Amino acid sequence: MKKTAVALAVLGLGLSAAHAEDVIKIGHVGPLTGNIAHLGKDNENGARMAVDEYNAKGVKIGGKAVKFELIGEDDAADPKTGTTVAQRLVDAGVKGVVGHLNSGTTIPASRIYDQAGIPVITPSATNPKLTQQGYKAVFRTIANDVQQGAVIGKYSAQKLGKKVAIIDDRTAYGQGLADEVDKGVKAGGGTVVAREFTNNQATDFMAILTKIKATNPDVIVYSGMDAQGGPMLKQVKQLGITAKWITGDGGCTGEIIKLAGDAIGPNDYCTQAGLPLEQMPGGKDFKERFKKKFGADVQIYAPYAYDAAAALIEAMKKANSSDPAKYLPALKASNFKGVTGVVAFDDKGDIKAGSITVYQYENGAWKALKN
Fold first, then answer.
1. 128-160: per-residue pLDDT in tens?
2. pLDDT digits (tens, 9 = 90+) for 292-323
């Protein structure tokens, strides 16, 4: 009996080891705590849905059936925490990473992944510096801020008013986007009458808004996230500022509408990198599957996170290997129909077909405009 038990135990260990070898870990990082946790969870859910759907279909790599496992980490939108959890994922043996949400966390974390030779694809970090660092395995499934900032700036100057005030949250995302907006305003024939900044934890914007009011702007551009954008809109209205207001993708959410309450109206605009969900090739079906699986609506970036996870898995399938060094060439050569459109990267790792959509607030929701 003892010999049989030992044999069975050894056999069991062997089976467990074999099973462990068939599990391919994919990391995801985003803020799961803090004031933009809803966006981090949205990203994670998008990546998780891709992993679960590939597992349900069944994937073989190297002649063996494999199971993908999503390892989620919380960076709290903090750069230092971002590098800490990046190293944790490397130590956990992930074969690829979807993330991070913010440019301010993705840029420093990308060095960790590069040193480990692990590909990382962000669905939402839009600062152009990310893909200008020369790292070979950094990718992005969404348009960058050079494109978005130019659209916001030109649209503001040409459609909303010539005198433009710009506020940013001093993060890598916010300041980087604001710099591109500044260029876009001038390229569109407008004038930047004020540039002010806050931080991504602030709730009181009265001082900078009072300064801006004195310049009598036609438009206020806010470059930051929805957690600050909503309260800021309330304070804009409290001060009696009549300027139109526009923000980028970080504030182009349903959450900002909730936070702004009665302060939001038809003079308020936002932009998103990419097409509206309903216009994405796989958007309608994705929206329904997402709602059914998570009982929640898509915030912004979940489709891009889904495509990022899909890109990693498709590259592994094409290379017939989960070894990052072996599947990286296939990842660079990606060309498949994703939820958001064709997923294909340029030589820097940016998505090739990046587009920007302008929205206007109407009847309780953001409505896409033809621009």
1. 999 999 999 999 999 998 989 999 999 999 999
2. 999 999 998 999 999 999 999 999 999 999 99
Among the listed residues 284, 289, 301, the one whose alpha carbon sits nearest the alpha carbon of residue 52 = 289
**CA–CA dist 26, 131 (Å, integer):** 21
**In the chain, domain spans:** 2-143+280-343, 145-273
- Angle between helix 302-319 and helix 37-57 axes, rounded to 10 deg: 40
Domain 2-143+280-343 has CATH 3.40.50.2300: yes
Q: What are phi and psi of 37, to 5 degrees?
A: -60, -30
How far apart (Å, rounded) are the C-alpha atoms in residues 137 and 329? Answer: 9
Q: Using DSSP, how many helices (H) and how many strands (E) does the chain show? A: 12, 15
Domain 2-143+280-343 identical in fold to domain 145-273: yes
Helix (H, G, I), strand (E, B) or coil at 61: strand
* 311 neighbors 288 (Cβ within 8 angstroms): no
Q: Work out the number of other CB atoms within 10 angstroms of the CB of residue 294.
A: 17
The matching CATH number, chosen from 3.40.50.720, 2.60.40.2150, 3.40.50.2300, 2.40.40.20, for 145-273 is: 3.40.50.2300
This prediction has a pTM of 0.82
Report the distance separating Cα 35 and Cα 229, nearest Å: 12
